[in-house]
Amino acid sequence: MIEFNEDELPVARSPIKEGDILSLFPIESISSSNRQFVGLQQQKHAVDMITEENTISKQEVSMEDDVNISIHENSHGNWLSKRVTLGRKERYPYPHLRAPDNTSSAYPSEGSSLYIHSRMERSASPGWYGNMIPICTAQDGGEEGNCAFVPLPGVAPLGGMVATRDIAKGEAIQEIHNGSGNDVSDLLQINHHQQQQQQHQLDERLAALVAKQYANEIGELMPYLQMAYAQNQNQEIQTNTKIPPTFHPIHTSYPNIQQIHTDPDIYTIPDFLTREECDKLIIKSSQNMQPCLVKNADTGAVEPDPSRTSTNANIPQREVPSITQKLSLMTNCETEQLETLQVLNYQHGQKFQPHTDGFDGPTNACGFLDSGRIVTIFCYLNDVEEGGKTMFTKLGLEIKPVKGLAVVHFPMSLELVEDERTEHQGNAAVDEKWILTTWVWKHWKGDYRYDDDKLPALSEDII
Questions:
Q1: For residue range 183-216, what is the model confidence (pLDDT) as tens digits?
Q2: Which of 108, 114, 347, 351 has the least C-beta neighbours within 10 A?
Q3: Nearest to residue 86, comparing CAs of 69, 104, 105, 61?
Q4: The whole model's pTM is what?
Q5: Is the link from the previous residue into 264 a cis peptide, with omega within 30 of 0?
Q6: Do 130 and 149 meet the contact criterion of CB atoms below 8 Å apart?
C-alpha cells in the first residue's frame, strides 16, 4: 500500500481505508528493556545512543496499566523501538508476555513489557516499511498523522502500521504524534491523563479493526508463534507439575450454591437458570441442532465426535446476555474467557463416554492460545425422570438432571495441569435430556476466527 516519492518519503500508493495494515514493522531485535538490544553486533553503540536524560523523559509519559502501547525513539534517530506493555485490561494477552507465576489471577501480571527494535535507516523489503514511516510532529504544520503502530493480536511482537483514518492516494504517510518524540518541551505541555485516555481508545479501536479484518491472515501466523515458544511452554509444564495445584476461585457465596464434593471441589446451584430461561434456550436451539464434532488430533479433520452421540447448537453471547452475565459472575471470570456456549440434546439411548474436560498442559483450541479450561459449568434445561444422570466415575458421585440445576467443577489447575479425578460421563438417556454447557479458560480468547460475534444468529429472541 506504500510507495516512496521523489523525496524518498512514504505515500499512499492507492486509497487506504481505516483499519488497513499499511506495512509491517521489521524486527531487528527484541529485549525486555529499551536500554538492552539483545543479539546485535552493534550492541554497545546502540545502548550509548540512548542518553539517560532521554530515557527519563520517556518514562514520564509512559502509559499506565490500562494502556498497552507506547513509542520510544532514541535521541539520535537511528533506532526506533516500540514497546508492548501488558495491561490488566489487555483483551488478548500474548503468551510470551505472561509472567511465569502461579497466582490465582485470571490475568497475567500487569506491566510486563517487550521492546521491539529496528534500525530506521534499514532498507526494508516491500511490506516491511513500518520503521521508515516518519512520526508527525508539531513542526509538520499541525497535522495529526494518519497511522499508528499496533502489535498484531495473537502474533505479537510482530506489529503493523495501521491506518487511523481513510487515506487518499498520494497522501503522505505519517505516524500519529502521541507526545513520545524527542521534543521535551512538548512533553511537558501534555495533559497526561487525557493523552492516556485517547491513546487507550485508539489502541482498542485499531486492535479490534485489525483483528476482525485480518482474522484469517493472523490465524495462519499463530502456529509459527507457538512453535517459536514451544520449548518455553514445555519447561513451564515440567515446573508446574512439581508444585501443589491451585484452582480458580469462583464465587462460593453465589445464591443457592452448594458444595457436594471436596478435593476435587464440585458445586451445584439449584435454579441457576429460571424455568423460563430453560424453556427459551430449548426453543432457540431446537431448530439449529447439529451432530457434535471434534478435531481429529492425527489428521486435523473435523469429524463427528465418537465419544458422544448427542447433537448440539452454538449460542451467541449476544442472544443470551443475561445468562452470559450470570455465568461470568458465578465463575468469577470475564465473558471473554468463556468458550462458546453450547446447548446439547440427548435422545433415547444417546450418551457421553467417560472423559475429562481438561488437556495435557497448555493447548490451542476454540480460539484460545497456550491456555486451558479451568472451570466447567453445565446446567440441565429439563427434568429427566429416567436415565441421563451425570456420573463422576472416579468419585462414585451421581447427579440427577433437574431443570435449572447447574454443576461446576475444575478440570485443570491454574498451572494448567489436568485433574483426572474429574472424569465424568453422561449416562445413556431414556427420557430426552437438554443441557447448556460452557468452559472458562485461563486466558482470554486470542484468535478472532473464533470470535463470538462471528457465530450466526439463531433467532431474534434475546434471553
A1: 333 444 445 566 666 766 777 788 778 888 888 8
A2: 347
A3: 69
A4: 0.69
A5: yes
A6: yes
